[in-house]
Structure formats: C-alpha cells, structure tokens
Amino acid sequence: EVQLVESGGGLVKPGGSLRLSCAASGFTFSNAWMSWVRQAPGKGLEWVGHIKTKDEDETIDYAAPVKGRVSISRDDSKNTVYLQMNSLKTEDTAVYFCTTFGDYYLFRVWGQGTTVTVSS
Amino acid sequence: QSVLTQPASASGTPGQRVTISCSGISSKIGSGYVYWYQQFPGTAPKLLIYRNDQQPSGVPDRFSGSKSGTSASLAISGLRSEDEADYYCAAWDDSLSGPVFGGGTKVTVL
Lengths: 120, 110
Known about the structure:
The complex is a heterodimer of chains A (120) and B (110).
Chain A: E1 3-7, E2 10-12, E3 18-25, E4 33-39, E5 45-51, E6 60-62, E7 70-75, E8 80-85, E9 94-102, E10 106-110, E11 114-118
Parallel strand pairs in A: 2-11
Antiparallel strand pairs in A: 1-3, 3-8, 4-5, 4-9, 5-6, 7-8, 9-10, 9-11
Chain B: E1 9-12, E2 18-23, H1 26-30, E3 34-39, E4 46-49, E5 63-68, E6 71-76, E7 85-93, E8 98-101, E9 105-109
Parallel strand pairs in B: 1-9
Antiparallel strand pairs in B: 2-6, 3-4, 3-7, 5-6, 7-8, 7-9
C-alpha cells in the first residue's frame, strides 16, 4: 500500500524552528518527486515547495511566502523527505501535507498531515 | 487571494448535476493542465481529475472534468450526499515555477 506519514508538527513560538518529516512506503521513493502543501485553518491549499530526484540533482523550488525560511531535503536511504522551517511566523500556522508530485498527476498521493501552530 | 478563481459555494439536490468553474490568468490555465481535488473536513485532499479530464482509478464516473480556453470545470452528475466536500482546482504556474490552487468550492447537497 502506498503511504505517506508526516510527523514533527507542534506548537512553536514566533521566530522558532521546526523540522517536519514524511516517511514513505509502498513505492520506489528514490524515483519520486516530493512536495509539501499546507492549509491554514479554514483556508485553502497552498503549495510550499518540492524536491526532485537525485538523478535530477534534487532540484528544489519554493513558494514565495516561505522562500528563504524553509528548506526541503530528502534521504532516499530512509525513504523520507523533510521540511525544515525557520523564522516561523504566526501565518505559518497550518496543517502541512506531504505529497508525491509530478507533471502527470501533480499531487497524487497525500499523507494525513501534521499540524504546526505558531503562537506565543 | 488565490490565483485561480472558483466560486465559494455550490449546491444541488440529490440526483442533480453540479458544475464548479475554475478560471485564471491565461498563462496558467490557458497553456497547461488542470487538476481537481476533493477534500472532506479533517482529511487530506484526494486527486479527482488529472490533466483536465482524466480520472484516476477508483473515482466514480459521476465526476468529470473539462477545460476550454482559460477556464476549466468540474461536473458532478447524479449528486449524492457523500459528495458534500470542498473541491479545489490546481494548475502549474510557469512564472512561479510551481503549482497554484483555486480558493476551493464547498459543495452542499440540499
């Protein structure tokens, strides 16, 4: 069964940092582009960024609202993708979803999400 | 403010056909594909339509997608109570080097 499981969410103060993890199973992770999408409370979906495969030099792109404050990385030996978030703002409060990503299906498989709350 | 524009809400009675529109700047929808996602409260989105009008396996035939020029539509035929959910369109944005979403449409079955 194809599965993505996020972890690492929690409550953090403004200016703080947090690292989210997403463990993948049921497919060849090293061949998959991976993405993070977030959803603020009561709001719509927002792409955060994505990372391509090692064969594509792990090319990464980020959305403008988070660029310079977040970093996406992957460890193919652990079938895991990470989202390092720094200088967190209250507006970063959201459920963060890990997804597979590509130009055929766009976002095909989704994790259950992990909640990040930025508050003093 | 979302880059792609969807109506905030849509509704219908059981058995009716409901259509949700998605419009955007021509550089986004005009040249690329449109995708549709269904989301129930408290759960992750689910891919409903890819590449304008293709259905992943397991998606009922009641859901169909289309695209014409700078607009796209999702149609739900034979509306059922279990179709009550939020629906999002998405497309690739060359200027952002990333995908963008519509603001979402809440479908209510009356």
